[in-house]
Structures are given as C-alpha cells and as structure tokens.
Amino acid sequence: MQPFKAVAAIALAFHLAPSSIASAGLLMGILFAFIGLTNLVDPLANLFTLPIVRGIQLGLGLILIREGVRLAISPKAGALVIAGVPLSPWQVALGGAAVLLIFKRSRRFPSALVLLAAGVLLGVLAQRGEWNFLGWGPVPFEVLHPRVEELKKAL
After folding, report:
1. How does DSSP classify residue 107?
2. Cα–Cα distance between 136 and 54 in angstroms, integer?
3. With a threshold of 0.70, does the pTM exceed it?
4. I need a labelling partner for 51 at 20 to 30 A (CA). Which of 24, 88, 139, 140 fits?
C-alpha cells in the first residue's frame, strides 16, 4: 500500500488543513524510521496480508469516488464553458469515465494518460488559450508548524 496516497485520499475526503496533512507526514516519517530501525518490516508484512491491504485500498478508493461524485453534483460547482457551450461538472465527470472505459485495454494509449491530456486540454480551452492562468514562477515557501491538536487528528 502507498501511505502517502492514503493520506491524500483522506485529506481530500475530510477537507483537512495543510498543517494537518503536514502533521500526518511527520508522524508517518517517525513511524517509518521506527519500523526501519527495529526491523519490524517483515513481521508487519506478515501481519498485513494481501486481502487486508486490498480492503484498505478499496475503502480509500470508495472514499475518493464518493468525494468525486459529491464535487460533481455540488451546487457550488460552476459550469465549464468551452466555445460558448457550458458543461456541468457531472457532464465532465461522465466524459472522463467514458474516456477511461474506451481506453481501458489500450496498450498504446494508457487510459490515465489520455484522461490527463483531456483534462489539460479542457483547462486550456476553458481559459481560451490564455496561459497566464497557470501562474508560472516561484511559489512562496511556508513552514508549517503542527500543533498538538493537529497531531492528534493526524493519528
């Protein structure tokens, strides 16, 4: 299982603050260092069998699906306007699902990459080809200081 993907899924689903996500990363780093230093990797691998790992992955996937559907049908979500045609978020989501199904078995064009390219194309078309929306340039650096409450929430 990929723990940082799990944190990302949980952070999206539960609308966690960046400092809570940083707290989770800090705690995972400490936990991984402890597991590595004490040679607990093999006993833990035997404890968490493949069905348990797959169950956790399924649960996180269902959380992401639920959040995606919630975002797609949210009344707050605005329409994406391309060439004067408004597309609602659920129409874009259905189009993305169709792309995934169409390219599911393609070896030449992996479905995830086609979907990514389609998303970039939609974003550019929605901005009428203006590239200034991308915000090129340095990103401000911010050090997050987790508080005790956030560390508890991250557990």
Report:
1. S
2. 39
3. no
4. 24
